[in-house]
Amino acid sequence: MSYYPVFLQLEGVAVLVVGGGRVALRKVETLLEYGAVISIVSKELTPELRRLADRGDVRFLGAEMRDSFLDEVSLVITATDDPILNHRVSQEARSRGLWVNAVDQPADCSFIVPSIVRKGDLMIAISTAGKSPALSKRIRKRLDAQFGNEYAAFLDLMGALRKTLLAMELPQQENSRIFNEIVESGIIDALAREDRETVAATLRQILPAEMDIRSIISTIARPYRSECS
Description:
Order of helices and strands: EHEHEEHEEEHHHHHHE
Largest sheet: 5 strands, parallel
Strand content: 5-15%
Number of helices: 9
Shape: elongated
Mean pLDDT: 92
Helix content: 40-55%
Number of strands: 8
Structural class: alpha/beta
Radius of gyration: 22 Å
């Protein structure tokens, strides 16, 4: 079976997580990071999930799974240690046209969750179609070492540049030239060294003279952390 890769916007999207163990916790923490509105059903909850429920960060629906819990959600993740329950939830969810991921049960999934390397707005997803999570993990670690936090800073820079340049209404060919020259320049390496003088000097050589380089560089002031899962 092959999978179509896609990135989902989950801000405000209702998600049901069935299960309350360590695997479910990892799923919940990642979903919260991307703004999902999460409900959980499980016979037991880890202390961390209990705290999230007590704080109101997630909604705890109780110990027993009911089909009615699927009425108002768009995405389902089932992560229990009961494969029969996972299968039943998957079948019911799919009969309603819902996207469902059953952890470690690829046949019961309509989507799978890749390993992720994230540096700011740079996101790299790795999948083996469920055949070797260990290989996905190995590749993820290599990519995490290869792509440092300078890529996050670079994308902040490019986001600010793109907005300003497009507002100037330059010819499309000129915009493409500028963007390609910046990507092929040594700016990423300079950001890795935290050498802003070189960044500024390089931008002055490439960008229109009227652009405010100092303002553009100010967009990369915040620190970054590596995120992988």
